[in-house]
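Ticket opened by: R.M.
Priority: normal
Category: complex prediction / small molecule

The reporter submitted a protein together with manganese (II) ion and asked that the result be attached to this ticket for the collaborator who will pick it up next week. Submitted input follows.
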Amino acid sequence: MKYHQINSALFVKNRRKFMAEMKPNSVAVFNSNDIYPISADSTLPFAQHRDIFYLSGVDQEESVLLLFPDAPYEHQREILFLRETNDHIAVWEGEKLTKERAFQVSGIRTVYWLQDFHKVLNEMMTYADTMYINTNEHYRATVETETREARFVKWWKERYPAHNVAKSNPILQRIRSVKESEEIDLIQHACDITEKGFRRLLGFVKPNVTEYEIEAELAHEFIRNRSKGFAYTPIIASGNNANVLHYIENNQQCKNGDLILLDVAAEYANYSSDMTRTIPVSGRFSERQKAVYNAVLRVKNEATKMLTPGTLWKQYHVEVGKIMTSELLGLGLLDKADVQNENPEWPAYKKYFMHGTSHHMGLDTHDYGLLHEPMKPNMVFTVEPGIYIPNEKFGIRLEDNVVVQEKGEPFNLMRNIPVEVDEIETLMNE
Ligand SMILES: [Mn+2]
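Result attached by the on-call engineer:
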């Protein structure tokens, strides 16, 4: 791991919150992700399942967490199972968690090797009435492969058909969406690394640079700051590529006069940041580009103010749509007739702004959070309006990450990342 160790107090708190929501006499189990094969003996880099990470801090494959708050013996309430390691194994496989290190990372005292899992689980199941199984119910999830978690759930339900079944996911969606202060610090740190990458680019971008050279600059800056790299596949879209919302080819040359839309951000300690900036290849915006840019910026600033406790996500999007509509009228992209005749199911503004304004952000870039429930303090959201104009060969999106506050306006974790036209032009021309 490149990141500095996280204080185990965070994971102790996270487990306490989860266990407080469990039914009497129930067991919950969480698994690591698999290491995904490519072919022959090559694999993708390991990426930990965010739920076991959130509850334990364990960032290692083949790990299992078992929670049983009503266990008859205290040492059985929180148990970790890890792949066995010792000095000999470490020579071949590199450093894995020892039982002592696992305690330092997670705050869990009872640690067994994985080969004891079925035996220990079987004992717990004779005491327990209910099993909490963890399924992926994220509103954007499409999963083609069978995860280690899913594989375990299938086996578990078949092996213990007489137990009641309960769902972990709604509990996790609720608790993971409201961040602890340690988590906000980690997300801030990811945002600060992203800022370094973006500032580096402002001195680097010039006509004829390629999108992949920009990607390489960012990867360099992120990794040298203890990030694994991009929090999500980067979008580096010059000219009309910006109008392809999920453009990830990043293989074109940036032409003088064009804009580049950059949806690029670093991860840190498995926490995401999620930034979008749009900058001119030449270092100067045209008057038209500037007008559209400032319209997007005003929508972003107005939308941000609405992210307050009690706000409903759906209603928020309706209000943002109204603000965007008035900006598009001002830019001459819509006229009054377009708005008067609009279909309420697909309002006129969606011709130029067809995606959502905000999503939860945290351990997942599109983080957990139940969107039908009102916003709460310490939720972290993106704010990311855009205007896309294929006829004019550019698209602009601006995106920051903000924390909902108990009182007052949200706290902008990207407050130090340049976004005003003047500042961007000044930094690009230094
Ligand atoms: Mn986003």
